[in-house]
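Hey, I'm writing a tutorial for new members on how sequence and structure tokens pair up, and I'd like a real worked example in the thread rather than a made-up one. If someone can provide the structure for the chain below, I'll link this post from the tutorial.
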Amino acid sequence: LGAAHPVASEIAASCGCRASIIAPDGTLSGDSGLDAAGLARAENHRLRPEVAAALEGREATSVRRSATVGMDLLYAAVPLLRAGRVVGVVRLALPLDAVARRVARTRAFVLLTALAVLIASFAVAWVLARLAGRPLEEMAAAARRLAAGDYSARVRGAEDDERGVLGSALNTLAERVERTVAELSAEKSQLAAVLDQMAEGVVAVDAEGRVLLVNPALSRLLGVDAVAARGRRYLESLRHNGIAELLGSVLSEGRAASREVRLFSPDERVFEGHAAPLLRDGSPSGALLVLHDITRQRRLEQVRRDFVANVGHELRTPLAVALGYLDILLAGPGLDESQRKALMKIQHEDENLHGLVEKLIVFSLVQSPEDIVLDRSELSLADVVDEALKSLGARIEGEGIRVSWTRAEAVGFPGLYADRVLLREAVANLVENAVKFNKSPKKEVRISVSRQGPSLRVTVQDNGPGIPSEEQPKLFRKFYQIDDDFTGQIPGFGLGLAFVKSVAEAHGGEAGLSSVPGGGSDFHFDLPLPSELA
């Protein structure tokens, strides 16, 4: 400790604080803040808390006012050891204001360092976020472009990580969407081209009756603006009762429907309208209507009907006159056998020709039952049945058919005001059918007239094979015939029963049948009595 004073000065110079070296007995051996005289006058420091602790071998600190320098100081003392024994104490002292300044500088340094680190961290994080978020931004931008309809949008530079997988999936989706949209666009263009070139009128509506499309053909036919009609209800945009009824039927019932539609633009034109439901996932979502022009077909049919009817009516009178004269000649005297055979041959052929003419008339009437004009006169159904049986006399006799006709009962019923010729042909058709389709070895036909409430009923009953129940509702349709397996190959047009139905309905009545397979059939038609007799 002999050189303690210079050492204390060196320590103080190196740390910027006051340094003291204290002997084990507490005397001050060296102090950077005192000269030799001051050092000699200094008090014993043994009792100083930090010195006492250091003399015991412990490091210690203390804050107090120094009597030597007259200011508050922070003391720190450490023991000097030699061979494990305390041989002195080194004490450092620093004024509290200096400590405060150092603490402030240290705090400022720490804060500035922390702020710099924080700013640097934010900068690094921002850069990393930009680098990491750029692919996501590109994906989001690509998704927005896809949503806006730009199906060429792609995510470029996708990396081999989760973002890369997402980008690849988005690119794959975009490619598929682009391909699908292109295919749909091509199909839409093809459909539009087909609809534009179609001669048939086409309209489609949704389940609420709003127009989805109107093709140019229908636009011209109805005189409507296809663009203006779209989105509006068909009732207000198409303005045609027939079309509205057809579409309304399909929308309400969910089943296909057909009907004739007549347009005047400016001449009358006839169309066959076919409407069917539009299905989505098996459920109706609207209706589609197609109008096919059948004007030429209807006109040709009318010409044909007129021709057949005119030919039939023109031939009927001279044939009837010829048959009348033949009856007179055959009833007259003086005919030898050869002459009688010749006249009977002529009569037979005349009757065949007359039957053909009647079939032509039947055909024309069945084709257009709404055009039937009744030539009404007072008549008795008994007389009408007699005339029908007489017209079939040769066939009935030739085939040995047994006919039961309860004429006596029929005579007692009131007379009718009806068309004699049509009723006679209706009865003849029922009798002819009873004979034609009866394969029994002993054919029997029973004819009767009965009262059915306000109507008179003519019934023709046979002992044939009967008719299956599933066939019965179809028999009064035009051109319908039962399968050959059931009836055998029977010549004819399938118009006889349709004619009977048309004649009955023209008189305000109806036709029907009852039959049991194996038990024969009853065909009938009802004719209403005059109101004063009903």
